[in-house]
């Protein structure tokens, strides 16, 4: 059943399949990874696919690219249930869950207009990752909801 | 603390705080108690926001230690007006000064500055964030009048944008204190500050009225409703003047109550309170000099290093 649904998105030969992404987050997954197809990689997206675990889920398949551990960790901010499948010659050779990193840099913008990172300064945004959100290292604002909206695009 | 930065009061342990306060007490009783000869020390004053007490007390403190200042002056008279970034400004001043005292309207500005220079950066107020040296003089004053343990303190006014409040609350969590926060709902402590205080196990209660808790307070710390921090003038007008301490208010207070205020005040403490034994705010302002002398003496290290 689930395999049939996954086949709605074509199999990839080499690359990464990001599975069990919460429904509606697929485009944010691409944004947080900085993947927009401009490097020539093939990208396939399945949205609102039925899922035993999540009821509905999104799937992202990136051809010809294996995600780094850092990229995988960052995914946890918006796709905490995601599983990462590394595919080589059509076979899944690695499969693991995302883990939350201690901090992320240059990924999110601070929503606090009074934060020094919102000024025209040579500073890279940096957030500590909490159990249930993120916290700006500079102004200390805690964000628990709406993290996808903070993704620097 | 030596050669470090003072960015927030969160970084200060009880031992750090007591070291500064003890040294300040020694300096206040004997001006020669300062450790180092500061005749070669130059402190850079970078105030991107107006300041009277903080700026002048830092200037007085370093001069009483034998040193001097270079002062950026007003933003309008500096290269900031030409669009220079904070990162560039502090890197330039680093070449002139042995330490930088920075006030800036944006939260996190002192932290950013500290990442660009090797001299100590002292946060003299970063927007609605922190004001750790104000906290040190507040604690010095509180210790002189009420002690720092088994203390019940009320902190009232603009708790949302009040950086002195945030810093004081963090520092007090090092001591055996019961903290009562009084404000309109719209000016409550930021949730992240409450989160931190709970993480520290601090005793924290929030109120909209002072009346129920006033009799049990040892200290009442009043802050100004800061018009300049409100994005919307209408929001300011809704709460302006809502909290005012008068001699009548204080009839319900303990005779020992100290009323404090970081100043400037507008209308939140009536002038009639000034002549009562409760008024501690001018003493508090005066304490800025010995406390900042002590801090600079401990922070700047040996002048011949």
UniProtKB/TrEMBL annotation, chain A:
One matching Pfam family: PyrI
Presence of keyword Iron: no
Q: Where is the Aspartate carbamoyltransferase regulatory subunit N-terminal domain?
A: 7-99
Cofactor (UniProt):
Zn(2+)
The record's note on quaternary structure and interaction partners says: Contains catalytic and regulatory chains.
Q: A Gene Ontology MF term for this entry?
A: metal ion binding
GO BP annotations, alphabetical order: pyrimidine nucleotide biosynthetic process
Which domain of life does the UniProt lineage start with?
A: Archaea
- The species is Halovivax cerinus
So what family is this one in?
Belongs to the PyrI family.
Known function: Involved in allosteric regulation of aspartate carbamoyltransferase.
What UniProt keywords apply to this chain's record, in alphabetical order? Metal-binding, Pyrimidine biosynthesis, Transferase, Zinc
Query: Where does the chain bind Zn(2+)?
Result: 110, 115, 136, 139
Instruction: List where this protein forms a coiled coil.
Output: none
Its gene name is pyrI
Domain Aspartate carbamoyltransferase regulatory subunit C-terminal, residue spans: 104-144
Instruction: Report the InterPro entries cross-referenced here.
Output: Asp_carbamoyltransf_reg_N, Asp_carbamoylTrfase_reg, Asp_carbamoyltrfase_reg_C, Asp_carbatrfase_reg_C_sf, Asp_carbatrfase_reg_N_sf
In terms of HAMAP family, this protein maps to:
Asp_carb_tr_reg
* Protein name as catalogued: Aspartate carbamoyltransferase regulatory chain
From TrEMBL, chain B:
Please list the residues that bind L-aspartate. 82, 163, 224
Q: Which residues bind carbamoyl phosphate?
A: 53-54, 103, 131, 134, 263-264
Ranges where the Aspartate/ornithine carbamoyltransferase carbamoyl-P binding domain occurs: 5-144
Supply the HAMAP family for this chain: Asp_carb_tr
Q: Return the Pfam families for the record.
A: OTCace, OTCace_N
Q: Where is the Aspartate/ornithine carbamoyltransferase Asp/Orn-binding domain?
A: 150-298
EC number assigned by the record: 2.1.3.2
Q: What is this protein called?
A: Aspartate carbamoyltransferase
Q: Does the keyword Transferase apply?
A: yes
Q: Does the keyword Transferase apply?
A: yes
Biological or metabolic pathway of the protein: Pyrimidine metabolism; UMP biosynthesis via de novo pathway; (S)-dihydroorotate from bicarbonate: step 2/3
Any one of the GO BP annotations: 'de novo' UMP biosynthetic process
Q: Which reaction does it catalyse?
A: carbamoyl phosphate + L-aspartate = N-carbamoyl-L-aspartate + phosphate + H(+)
**MF (Gene Ontology):** aspartate carbamoyltransferase activity
State the family named in the UniProt similarity comment for this chain.
Belongs to the aspartate/ornithine carbamoyltransferase superfamily. ATCase family.
What function does the entry list? Catalyzes the condensation of carbamoyl phosphate and aspartate to form carbamoyl aspartate and inorganic phosphate, the committed step in the de novo pyrimidine nucleotide biosynthesis pathway.
| Keywords (A to Z) from UniProt | Pyrimidine biosynthesis, Transferase
Question: Matching SUPFAM superfamilies, A to Z?
Answer: Aspartate/ornithine carbamoyltransferase
What binding partners and quaternary form does the record give? Heterooligomer of catalytic and regulatory chains.
Q: Source organism lineage?
A: Archaea, Methanobacteriati, Methanobacteriota, Stenosarchaea group, Halobacteria
């Amino acid at each position: 059943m689930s395999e049939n649904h996954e086949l709605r998105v074509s199999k990839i030969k080499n690359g990464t399949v990001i599975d069990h992404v919460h429904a509606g987050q697929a485009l944010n997954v691409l944004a947080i990874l900085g993947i927009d197809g401009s490097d020539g990689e093939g990208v396939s997206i399945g949205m609102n696919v039925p899922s035993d675990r999540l009821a509905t889920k999104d799937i992202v398949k990136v051809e010809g690219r294996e995600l780094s551990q850092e990229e995988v960790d960052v995914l946890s901010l918006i796709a905490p249930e995601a599983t990462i499948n590394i595919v080589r010659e059509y076979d899944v050779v690695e499969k693991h869950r995302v883990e939350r990193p201690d901090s992320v840099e240059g990924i999110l913008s601070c929503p606090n207009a009074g934060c020094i990172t919102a000024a025209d300064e040579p500073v890279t945004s940096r957030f500590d990752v909490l159990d249930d959100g993120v916290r700006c290292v500079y102004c200390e604002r805690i964000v628990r909801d709406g993290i996808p909206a903070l993704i620097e695009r | 603390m030596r050669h470090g930065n003072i960015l927030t009061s969160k970084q200060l342990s009880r031992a750090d705080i007591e070291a500064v306060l003890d040294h300040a007490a020694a300096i206040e009783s004997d001006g020669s108690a300062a450790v180092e000869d500061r005749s070669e020390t130059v402190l850079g004053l970078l105030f991107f926001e107006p300041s009277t007490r903080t700026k002048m007390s830092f200037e007085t403190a370093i001069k009483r230690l034998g040193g001097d200042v270079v002062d950026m002056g007003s933003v309008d008279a500096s290269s900031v007006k030409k669009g220079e970034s904070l990162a560039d400004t502090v890197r330039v001043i680093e070449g002139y000064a042995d330490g930088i005292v920075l006030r800036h309207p944006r939260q996190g500005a002192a932290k950013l500055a500290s990442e660009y220079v090797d001299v100590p950066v002292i946060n003299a107020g970063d927007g609605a964030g922190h004001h750790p040296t104000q906290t040190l003089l507040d604690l010095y004053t509180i210790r002189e009048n009420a002690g720092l343990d088994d203390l019940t303190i009320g902190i009232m006014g603009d708790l949302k944008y009040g950086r002195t409040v945030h810093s004081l609350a963090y520092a007090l969590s090092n001591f055996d204190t019961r903290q009562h926060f009084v404000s309109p709902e719209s000016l409550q402590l930021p949730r992240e500050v409450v989160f931190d205080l709970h993480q520290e196990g601090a005793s924290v209660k929030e109120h909209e009225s002072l009346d129920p808790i006033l009799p049990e307070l040892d200290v009442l710390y009043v802050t100004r409703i800061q018009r300049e921090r409100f994005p919307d003038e209408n929001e300011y007008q809704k709460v302006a003047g809502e909290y005012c301490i008068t001699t009548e208010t204080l009839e319900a207070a303990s005779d020992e109550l100290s009323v404090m205020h970081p100043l400037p005040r507008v209308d939140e403490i009536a002038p009639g309170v000034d002549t009562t034994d409760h008024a501690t705010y001018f003493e508090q302002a005066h304490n800025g000099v010995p406390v900042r002398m002590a801090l600079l003496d401990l922070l700047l290290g040996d002048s011949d290093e």
